Amino acid sequence: MAEVTARYVGLDVHKHTIAVAIAETSGPPELYGVIPNDPKVVRGLVEKLGQGRRLLAAYEAGPTGFVLQRQLSSLGVECLVAAPSLMPRRPGDRVKTDSRDALTLARLLRSGDLTPVWVPDREHEALRNLVRARYVAKADLLRAQHRVVKLLLREGVPAPQGCRSWSAPYRAWLNQLQLPQPLTQLVFEDYRSQVQLARERLQRFERELARAAEASPHLHTIGALQTLRGVGLLTAVTIVAEAGDLRRFGRAPALMSFAGLVSREHSSGEHRRQGGITKTGNAKLRHVLIQAAHNARFAPATSAQLRRRLEGAPPDLVELSWRAQQRLHQRYWHLQRRIGGGKAFTAVARELAGFVWAVGQRT
User: 183-186 contacts: CB < 8 A, separation 24 or more?
Assistant: First the structure.
């Protein structure tokens, strides 16, 4: 039986159009043309190009998501979604067009020089959308609160002594506050109502996240991650939503790199220079790990809340949780004296990612 010849297809995808380039097993890639970004047209393209050929396609990850990847996979095309930041670039290439991008993708796909991103299934992507919507709601709440605080600052209205901002007594004081100017009072009441709406929206997302975690196929992993101090439900769900199955990372440094927590390095000859973290990974995963790393300031202890999360956990996870507390606490105070708290938290977050990876391998 004759071997099926492969054909490599580069796709530069936009909202309305797709630039298509084709590379055979040898020779330079050629531009096929520009087609509408329409499922029927894409199906026709696959039927035309795939006659007696094994089709491999690639496009860059971007705002169009994974809809095209899922359609091509359902049509039997091996489709790779490439990481844009890791695509090889020629230093002298200063021209960027859709056609050139498609030709480049076809050529790099054939040579095996594209780095794929992880493509979640629809259910997992829905969970990730919910997690990100919760973070957007949190940011909107902070902005709404800042509007109120800045308005009172401009009007010279101080908060009551000993009243913590946005505590229950502070909100009660805002509810009865009357400003002298009617128009300013109108603006103040509108700002205050926006805070209340934003708070209710945030609480609604958090309730839905709790329900989604209970129904998630990753429920066991979400529960296991909460055995680590500083990793509550929202943090655990965020880790799972952004990283997916932690077993797909063969080594702990791979998860650290995915979160952008590894340091830059420029070494040449006898000179070796390291800089700050790359920040080229998943920003939301990096954020929750750094926030959880702040708990390393405190001496190892099992609080009542952590004790509840440890109930029923396997002995190896309980032991790992305690070992993580000891290691991260020691590491933080060692680094805090040398490089300061901010950088120390980041370094501890990198090590925390290693413990997160270890938990993922056990589940």
Answer: 184/151, 184/155
Specify whether the CB–CB gap between 173 and 160 falls below 8 A.
yes
DSSP letter for 115, please.
P
Partner residues linked to 22 by β-bridges? 9, 30
How far, in Å, CA of 141 to CA of 209, rounded? 18
d(CA 346, CA 251): 19
Residue 66 carries which side chain, given as an amino acid letter? Answer: F
Give the global pTM. 0.90
- 294 SS3 class: helix
Domains of the chain, each with CATH number or no CATH: 5-111 (3.30.420.40), 122-215 (no CATH), 220-362 (no CATH)
By DSSP bridging, strand 17-23 and strand 5-13 are: antiparallel
Among 102, 105, 125, smallest CA distance to 115 is for: 105
Least confident of 20-24, 49-53, 246-250: 49-53
Dump pLDDT digits (tens) for 328-343: 999 999 999 999 989 9
Residues 6+ apart with CB under 8 A from 320: 227, 355, 358, 359, 362
Task: Choose among 115, 116, 102, 97: nearest CA to 45.
Answer: 102
Kindly tell me the burial class for residue 239, based on how many C-beta atoms sit within 10 Å of its own C-beta (0-12, 13-18, 19 or more): buried
Cα 218 to Cα 97, 124, 161, distances in angstroms: 42, 10, 46
